[in-house]
Structures are given as C-alpha cells and as structure tokens.
Amino acid sequence: MVTAPTNRTMLCVCIPTCKRAALLEALLDDISAQSLLPDLLVVVDGDPNSGEVLPALERHSPTATKTSGRTLYIPSNHSNLPYQRFLGWKVAEKADSELLAYLDDDLRIPNHDAISRLVAPLRFDQDGVVASTGSVLYPNDRGNRERLVPGDRIHSGESGTPLLVRMLGSARGMAPGSLTPSGHRLPPCPSASGTADIQWLRGGVMAVRMGFLSSDCFSEDLFALAELGYGHGEDTFLSGRLASMGRLRFVSSAEFLHPCSDLPRAYTTKAAKMGFGSAYSRRLLNDNYRWPKAPRLGDRVALWKSYAGTVMIYWLRAIRNPKLHRFAFAWGYSKGAWNGMTRPPKASRLTPRVDWRRDAQEAFNAAKTISL
User: How far is CA 106 from CA 136, 137, 190, 336, in A?
Assistant: First the structure.
C-alpha cells in the first residue's frame, strides 16, 4: 500500500522500466552521482514477473542513490509507458512532491548537474514555467543500421520528398519549438542563455511542477493505445495539457545520453504495427490539440493533409529502395491513417475489459518501499 511520507518531498524522480534491469542499474549509478539528488525515487516495473528489477533496486537503494531511504518500487500490471507514468504521478502526489521528473530507463547522465539544470526553471523561475525538458544526445556511431527499428531504418540517410512536405506538411509558418496539429515537434532555437520556450516535452527527459498535474493530464484512451502497441506521443499529449496552463522551457545544457543499447520497449518494433501506431496515435493528438477546446476545422484539415503526404512519402521510399520492412511500414501507416480519419481511438472500444483505475489501485497495493 502506498502511504504518504511524513515530510514533503521537493523532487521526485520517476523511472518507468521494462525488461531492462541492467540499463536501469547504470542509470541509478548516474543518479547517485548527481549534484541534486531526488528526495524520492519511484521505479515502475512494467515486467514484475521477471523478478529482476526489485533486486537491482535493493542493491542500489537507499545508500547508493542517496535518497534518504525513500525509494519506492511499483510492480505495474501493464507494460504500458503512459500508464506507468500515471502510476508515478499518483505516488508523487501522495508524497506531496513539489517537482516530478520522468527519466527513461535506457538513458545515461554524463554530467553531474544535468538533473539540477533540468529542474532549474521550475525551482527558480517565477515567470509561469510549469514544465521543462532537456537535450537527449545520440552517439555518432549507431552501429549496424540493420539492427535499428523499422522507423529508424526507413528514415536513415533520407531527406524525404521536399515538394510533398512543402505542399502537405502542417509545419509551414510555425515558429521554432512549436507543435503541429498532426503532432510533429519543431526543433527549438535556444537563446544565448541556452533556453527556449517550446510547446512540447521530450518524454524521456522532462520535469513538471506537481501543482499543474492532474488526472486530466493522463488519458485512458492513450493507455489503451499503448496496451495494444500503438501508443506513440504520450509525451506530446501531456505537453498539450501543460502548455494550456503555463510555459514549457527547453534547457539545452541539461544533457542526457541515449546510447541506443536496446530496442524500444514502449511500443512495438514490428514494421507494419509500428507504422499503424505512428499514424493512428496522431488522431488522438489532433483531438486534444487545443484542449480543453475541440480542434478547429483547420486542425482537422492539417491532419488529413499530413496523412496524405506521409502515406505518399512512405510508399515512394518503399518503391525507390525496395525492402520488406519499408513496404510493411507503408502499409501499416496507410491503414493507421484510414482508421485515424474514420474511427477515433477510444479506450471503451480498444480495451473494453480493462478497468484502468482499478488496476492502478491494485498496483499501488503491491508497492514496496526500499529502506535501510
């Protein structure tokens, strides 16, 4: 049973993990070397039946992570990233935390002050900043390209079809750091201070003022998409909710390393299914683009145009460089785009037998505090 600690916590760090205990241990080592240490560490295990994560935490907590004995392990009953983040938020809420930072389990932190820099806009800025994100660096040598997931292999070394992008893309005329109606994130243009206002958060590295998080920031429809392997853009969904309440800040000096040591666990890496999820999830993002208001007609048109242009680009790439995974991805994206235009994703249809709130309570009941 999750119980609130007696003292309020300033910083809670939540790490959703799934089948990557070794990578998690490496990240815990990096966290223990940070200049700003979390007051509460929450690890949400997406594969508790493996029995690997809990022993890893017991080896590292609380002494190694220096979290004053407050490390909490939650065995999630769904291997589902947005749902796992929801569980982490509920724990941080019960702990009366001021700040919540989410980190992916396959990151490394090369600089000792990265977490401090990430949360600095939330600790010291009084100018309406409600959330922040940092830089995720990828190694230059990503090894054998054939080991990459289909989406990376398809985009590898290709610049796309500029004419189609100019004609049908939804980013035309939008400022750096913007978010398009189809869910595409435009890169920021940091100021001399290395920061910039943006409209999106990078899911693997983000920090939030707890006072602006509520159950509205999490979607059962997105839980359902992720449960079926189609859940892309959970960070974009959360970004839209938070951007409606205040400013989002990008901090270029908050650097985290993504070594690409393992395949993604948050979504399927099978080409056809990955293409379907990439397209279908954009309908959910478009539905919530102007939350709490409904999307405008122009937002819908932008999504349809994006679907049309992207479908053509993927099929052209498959024809120009024939590979089975390219055709599978193009077919999956086409099918996902059609579903996005005709059948909005709803949990009641996608996972009718799952009671997400009841399952969350069961996960809390099985939580375990790691202490001295």
Answer: 11, 12, 26, 28
Residue 127: helix, strand or coil by DSSP? coil
Domains and CATH numbers, the chain: 11-351+363-370 (3.90.550.10)
Mean pLDDT value of segment 102-122 = 95
Beta-carbon contacts of residue 322 (< 8 Å; ≥ 6 apart) = none
> What pTM was computed for the model?
0.90
Bond from prior residue into 292 cis (ω within 30 degrees of 0): yes
Q: Which two tokens stand for residue 368?
A: 């375990």
- Give dist(CA 121, CA 248) in Å, integer: 9
Rounded Cα distance, 87 and 93, in Å: 10
**Which strands make up the sheet holding 129-137, listed edge to edge?**
195-198, 247-257, 129-137, 205-209, 99-103, 11-17, 40-45, 71-75, 368-370
CA dihedral 90, 364, 5, 13 (to 10 degrees): -50
Distance of CA 182 to the CA centre of its chain: 17
pLDDT digits (tens, 9 = 90+) for 206-235: 999 999 999 999 999 999 999 998 878 889
- 3-class DSSP state of 26: helix
Paired tokens of 266 = 């948050």
Query: Which residues touch 307 (CB under 8 Å, ≥6 apart)?
Result: 182, 279, 282, 337, 340, 341
The letter for the amino acid at 143 is G
